[in-house]
């Protein structure tokens, strides 16, 4: 039996309510809003009038706040790459399969928000503060599982460069997990549940 890497036994230090609260504050600050006027179900593009540039700013701030790498791609676009465009979209409209995939991938979204006739760019209209918090939490879990590829030592934040970790034992640089890879991993898992064949590998 091999010993567990040291970081494996480190308790995962981020509770869901704590992450949600911090994400809400980041969103409020980026959009210059009073946090008291925002809740977890607020939709970024619908209720909070966010624009694409605001989303980039929010993603960047979340990365700095939590030391993670956020995915930047549209879930439906990645799903089309992975499971074929025909499975997910028909004439630009999200298919039943695509809607099922979204419901399973975004459990925080009320099911009735995902309606027939949706187009790929309508996807962003669904994104809530809670959606962001779920993604942040997912990234944090992956960071908590990091350990050194050279010696198995624990990953600790690199004091010289904020967006990387370093091995506590040998000093080897440990890259942060890519948010895009995590998103694709999760899509694969959901696809497996749905018995969707994989036809392509996202770039
Ligand atoms: Zn090491």
What do these coordinates show?
It is a single chain. The protein has 203 residues and is mainly alpha-helical. The chain has one domain: ACP-like (Non-ribosomal Peptide Synthetase Peptidyl Carrier Protein, Chain A, Orthogonal Bundle). It is built from seven helices and five strands; from the N terminus they run H-H-H-H-E-E-H-H-E-E-E-H. The chain has a three-stranded antiparallel β-sheet, with no helix packed on it. Strand 1 and strand 2 form a beta hairpin. The structure holds zinc ion. Zinc ion binds at residues 148, 150-151, 153, 167, 169-170, 172. Zinc ion (ZN) binds at residues 148, 150-151, 153, 167, 169-170, 172.
**Sheet bearing the most strands, described?**
3 strands, antiparallel
Overall number of domains: 1
End-to-end CA span? 36 Å
User: According to CATH, what is the class?
Assistant: Mainly Alpha
């Amino acid at each position: 039996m091999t010993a567990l890497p040291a970081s494996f036994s480190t308790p995962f230090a981020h509770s869901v309510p704590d992450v949600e609260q911090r994400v809400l504050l980041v969103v409020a600050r980026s959009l210059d809003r009073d946090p008291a006027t925002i809740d977890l179900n607020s939709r970024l593009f619908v209720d909070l009038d966010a624009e694409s540039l605001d989303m980039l700013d929010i993603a960047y701030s979340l990365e700095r706040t939590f030391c993670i790498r956020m995915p930047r791609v549209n879930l439906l676009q990645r799903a089309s790459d992975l499971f074929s465009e025909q499975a997910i979209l028909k004439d630009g409209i999200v298919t039943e399969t695509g809607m099922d995939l979204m419901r399973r991938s975004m459990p925080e979204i009320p099911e009735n928000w995902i309606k027939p006739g949706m187009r790929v760019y309508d996807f962003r209209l669904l994104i809530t503060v809670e959606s962001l918090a779920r993604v942040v939490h997912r990234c944090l879990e992956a960071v908590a599982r990091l350990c050194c590829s050279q010696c198995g030592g624990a990953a600790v934040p690199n004091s010289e460069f904020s967006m990387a970790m370093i091995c506590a034992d040998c000093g080897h640089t440990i890259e942060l997990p890519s948010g895009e890879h995590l998103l694709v991993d999760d899509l694969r898992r959901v696809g497996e549940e749905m018995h969707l064949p994989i036809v392509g590998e996202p770039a």
